[in-house]
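Much of what follows relies on a compact textual record of a protein's fold. Each token is a code from a learned vocabulary of local backbone shapes. The record below shows the convention in full.
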Amino acid sequence: MIGVVFALLAAGRIVTLDDAVQSAREHQPQLRQAHANTAAAAARARQAFAPLLPQVSASAGYQRSTANAITRPGSASVAGSATGSSWDTFNSFSDSVQASQLLFDFGSQPNRYRSAKAQAEAQAATERATALQIDFNVRFAYFDARANGALAKVARDNLDNLIRHLQQTEGFVQAGTRAEIDLVQARTDTANARVALINAENAYETSKLNLNAAMGVEGPTDYDVADTQAPPVPGEDGVLDSLLDEAMKARPEVQSLEDQIRATQLTMRSIEGQYGPSVSATAGLTQGGTSLDRLGWNVAVGLSLSWNIFQGGLTKAQVSEAEANVIAAVAQLDLQRQQVRSDVDGARLAVRAAKESLSATQEALMNARERLRLAEERYTVGVGSAIELGDAQVALAQAAAQAVQADDKLSTARAQLLRALGRQ
């Protein structure tokens, strides 16, 4: 897909909103990083589960050593193969297999595993939150580039119109029906329009650089952004309570924090389990001797009990830390719920305001076009002034820019609402 995107950009073709979003979903480095973090969290959960399974280890060794008797005060003598010391050496073979199984530890290790699993689920929810944010970022960058492209077109149309006025004014001045000051003013307005066009085109190119970054690609900007408006969000005119209910259930940030709270509570239970002993079953086979065909062997089975009776208050302090972490996580969840409400309500209001603003700017644009038409007619027949014509031209450019900005605000507000509701 990334090769297709590179070819698309290099060919100077049109990039649609769907192209941009799909590219970001497949190639945005932040998403790859979030996915790797989720995989790492899942691996940590498997690591926490491993101690609950049987543990088996094996070892083998070979040694060539002397067999001299060693006598130490207060200890039994080690019998050697001969009296006195000798440099004679002998083979020594050994191997062993040991197995153990945790039987009971007051829930310490099982809760540690459950906590790690809940953390993995929290990280998976965080990955979904990252995906939502990436979608919003690329939509925001796309609509910004789209608006700057439209503003560049407004600047270009404004310059073309002023050039036409300039040519018209040159004819009037040569014919003596207009003063030379009108020509000077027309040239000044045209030069200013050229500067505005240069700035608008530069803003468009810069916004496409930002769009490339949001799409997760490195490529040229010699392409155009399709004039695609954000479609209406289903339920965007609905009541706040229903939108909030949907957002609270769908927002992965809320789910992630709930999983983190559960993980912290399980961690606390796991630590509390350390107050009691742990019991394991053990079994082992050992062999040894001076020759591989004459190895002696022993088998042993049994139970082992381990109990940290006193560690200087370590377990109690760890429990206190876990309790504080639970309180902090709950507070963070409450804060996130407040943020969700603010996101939904703010985006809903922004959509409503943008709709109303767009309707008003469209009416203003229509009136500005009519005003310019009338001013051009008046100027042509010698009734209107250059100032009147210039003001009408400026008013049209401003109205066109306001219409573009209002349309961009509506598209951006709808993208914000999608993000606030947890929809992709």
